[in-house]
Design a protein that fits this description.
The complex is a heterodimer. In chain A, 50% of the residues lie in helices and 15% in strands. By secondary structure, chain A is of the alpha/beta class. The relative contact order of chain A is 0.16. Chain B is 53% helix and 11% strand. Chain B has an eight-stranded mixed sheet, with helices on both faces. Classes of the chains: A alpha/beta, B alpha/beta.
Chain lengths: 345, 401
């Protein structure tokens, strides 16, 4: 497969904002997306916003400094070698110092300010400032050019959770309440232009459970409001999807506890599990397995309903399989491959 | 660190905790998505059924929780929750959801004369502080907790903690806000507007000039003026703020409080739980135990994953050809066997046994690091919580372990 010959769903998107409810695997999916994007060669930056060092844990490397550092090489194809994934743990303090340096040549002052606690102070009296600085860093990395070329082919942002995402992305409005004029306002406007350009898309990570699905739908609805301002909604990435080996009929039967128990018992006998036959011909293993099938079926059917509701939201959905044996690099590569197969990257 | 051969942790007896009249406050904490809010609600319900007069304070604006408690919505005032089968001797249950801005406004209204209160409420800086300062939610949760405790209308308060990005925020935020409002920086910045500003001017030095210069540069002069106006209007309330934050902090350290750390048997959640346990002990907060939520079990635990997979394999004609037992599910076509149902059941079971083993390893690792921490396990429910009946089931699961 030659480089860039495939069509993906997000041609032209260079800043991928990944949000999701806590516990849905947002960081993992962001990492997988970065790997998937890097698979066609090139250079991808994965950014963390919350200072939890989740990326370092994910890629099994030492804690990330405030600096871009290579964390993985994406799997290539026979035609193209895989690209590189860089990572950055962004924090508002470093971003502010960098900002002061860039615009006012104030780096030495920056240190003093940190010592005085002014950074904490500034981000406190203007809460939007923190967000402007963090999104500003992402916007800067997205636009950065070296010799006329974009340094990064794509930037993936492990963004704050769904509950905070619209405020996080709606910077200009947030800041305008405080700073009506002045440089930070100007900076916010620049960042806002990047966030609201066709180069940026906001993806939601969810699992097929009540609360995460509800929160995803709420988040999509909320961002739709902002979409009028140019914000582009991305995909719904359904994480931890478990396949089922049961047919629809079996699922329906299992869910209402009406599975063909005899068929199960025959199978278990054929498999040599006769030793587990209980007293008086009662096969407690069959009962237990039937109960497990029942729970599984209930879950699968609930998940189908959740999936239907999600699909109604009208955004593309991708499935990421559940990795049962612990999330490590191998698992991450598997997720990245799944994303590529479905055209996400 | 060896995970094998570790002693089983002591069992956390939640019923005993709920029944003990000395337990006045239960704080559920843990990372996002582990079921803190549901656990808090389930504990509240169970305590009420066992005779306590309970109020559940949630900071999570989850509509489902309100629905599951038969309330159309939760707001900043405790609302009575009708108990499903209120028997003689059962207590009462109230629930409320924290509205941080409302709570902050109420404090201002209660502690300032109407003129001044109006001034504060209209200040853009106050509006920003009260609705989006990173620590305000945590601070107001503490403030509300203190209020509920002082109201003395309930004998048990169950509270969950804000979905902070890190467990630390919840303990730090109150002090951070009070430090901020009472801090040297704000005094320096606002010195000129205060009476006796001259005293401050003495300490005004190059640093101060640079400070205001930069704040003005970055945020604009208007922001600084707003802050100054706010601070001079808010000045008299500063002391009270700090005092109450410290009171609540101390209240949490008393034996009447029980912290429950909630986690799911997953690496991230347990890592956060570990961190929280250490932090609570550093702050001398009374930790009651760990609630391990959504633990998987099997009714056929004696049938191992390996044996189950082998049995499934035996039912496939071309065993080993295209089956991927490691993946657990659906690799070989179902029509390759005469017993598709048994194959599916056995694979599903193997997958569950692997999951159970992984969860157990993680739990053991936690208990090896924190051997004294009692643990209660709550079995994963196949369906989400929709109503009081489901909450009740969780409360029962909690007590049964």
């Amino acid at each position: 497969m030659p480089v860039r010959a495939r069509d993906t769903d997000w041609e032209g998107v260079r800043l991928h904002v990944v949000t999701g409810k806590g516990g849905t695997g947002k960081t993992t999916v962001a990492g997988a997306l970065a790997l998937a994007l890097a698979s066609s060669g090139g250079r991808v930056l994965l950014m963390e916003m919350e200072g939890r060092q989740g990326i370092a844990q994910l890629f099994d490397c030492p804690p990330l400094p405030y600096g871009e550092r290579k964390v993985a090489v994406a799997p290539g194809t026979s035609a193209v070698p895989g690209g590189d994934v860089y990572a950055l743990a962004a924090d508002a303090e470093s971003a502010l110092i960098e900002y002061l340096e860039m615009f006012y040549n104030l780096r030495p002052a920056g240190r003093t300010l940190t010592r005085l606690g002014i950074v904490d102070f500034a981000t406190t009296i203007a809460p939007g400032l923190r967000d402007v600085l963090l999104t500003g860093k992402a916007a800067e990395a997205t636009r950065r050019r070296v010799k006329g070329q974009h340094l990064y082919d794509a930037v993936v942002m492990d963004a704050p959770p769904t509950g905070r995402i619209s405020r996080f992305l709606n910077i200009a409005t947030e800041v305008s309440g405080l700073a009506k004029v002045g440089p930070i306002r100007g900076h916010a406007d620049t960042v806002q232009r990047v966030i609201r350009s066709p180069e940026t898309a906001v993806h939601f990570v969810t699992v097929l459970e009540d609360m995460p699905v509800q929160e995803t739908l709420d988040g999509i609805a909320e961002l739709r409001g902002l979409a009028k301002g140019g914000l582009q909604l991305g995909a719904v990435m359904i994480n931890m999807v478990r396949p089922t080996a049961l047919t629809d009929d079996q699922l329906a039967a299992a869910a209402r506890g009406g599975l063909d128990r005899d068929e199960l018992v025959l199978g278990l006998k054929a498999a040599g599990l006769e030793g587990s036959l209980g007293p008086e011909g009662r096969n407690d293993v069959a009962d237990a397995l039937a109960a497990e099938l029942g729970e599984h079926a209930t879950q699968v059917l609930n998940q189908r309903e959740h999936r239907r509701v999600l699909a109604e939201a009208g955004q593309p959905c991708y499935d990421l399989p559940l990795v049962t044996d612990g999330m490590d690099l191998a698992g991450l590569y598997r997720l990245a491959a799944a994303l590529r197969e479905q055209g996400a990257a | 660190m060896s995970s094998e051969g570790t002693k089983a942790p002591p069992r956390l007896d939640t019923d005993r905790l709920l029944d003990d009249p000395r337990t006045r406050i239960i704080v559920c904490c843990g990372s996002g998505g582990v079921g803190k809010t549901t656990t808090a609600a389930a504990l509240g319900l169970r305590a009420a059924e066992r005779g306590r007069h309970v109020v559940v304070l949630t900071v999570d604006p989850a509509r489902r929780l309100a629905q599951s408690m038969d309330l159309s919505s939760l707001d900043n005032t405790p609302r009575p929750v009708p108990l499903p089968d209120a028997a003689a001797g059962s207590g009462t249950l109230h629930a409320m959801m924290l509205d941080m801005k409302r709570t902050f406004d109420e404090i201002v209204e209660a502690h300032a004369d109407p003129d001044r209160a109006g001034q504060i409420l209209a200040n853009p800086f106050y509006q920003s502080l009260s609705s989006s300062f990173a620590g305000t939610q945590e601070y107001m949760a503490m403030e509300k907790l203190g209020q509920l405790r002082r109201a003395d209308q309930w004998d048990l308060i169950v509270v969950d903690t804000p979905p902070s990005r890190s467990a630390l925020d919840f303990l730090d935020a109150p002090q951070r806000l009070s430090r901020f409002l009472d801090g040297r920086l704000i005094k320096l910045l606002t010195a000129p507007t205060r009476a006796g500003g001259r005293a401050y001017l003495k300490v005004v030095n190059v640093g101060f000039g640079m400070l205001t210069g930069i704040v003005t540069k970055v945020l604009g002069a208007q922001v600084l003026r707003d802050v100054q106006t706010f601070v001079s209007a808010f000045d008299t309330m500063f002391g009270g703020f700090r005092e109450r934050a410290e009171d609540t902090y101390r209240l949490l350290q008393t034996p009447g409080t029980a912290f429950l750390v909630v986690a799911t048997p997953e690496p991230d959640a347990l890592r956060e739980a570990s961190y929280f346990v250490e932090r609570l002990s550093e702050d001398r907060m009374p930790l009651a135990g760990l609630i391990l939520n959504r633990v998987h079990r099997s009714p056929a635990a004696r049938l191992s994953a390996a044996r189950s997979l082998a049995a499934a394999e035996a039912l496939l004609p071309a065993a080993g050809e295209n089956s991927h037992p490691a993946n657990g599910g659906g690799a070989a076509p179902a029509d390759a066997t005469k017993y598709p149902l048994a194959v599916a059941a056995l694979r599903l079971h193997a997958e569950r046994m692997q999951l159970i083993a992984a969860e157990r390893r993680l739990a053991q690792r936690f208990s090896a690091a924190h051997p004294g921490v009692p643990v209660a396990r709550v079995t994963a429910q196949p369906e989400d919580v929709h109503d009081l009946a489901a909450l009740k089931v969780i409360g029962e699961a909690l007590s049964r372990d």
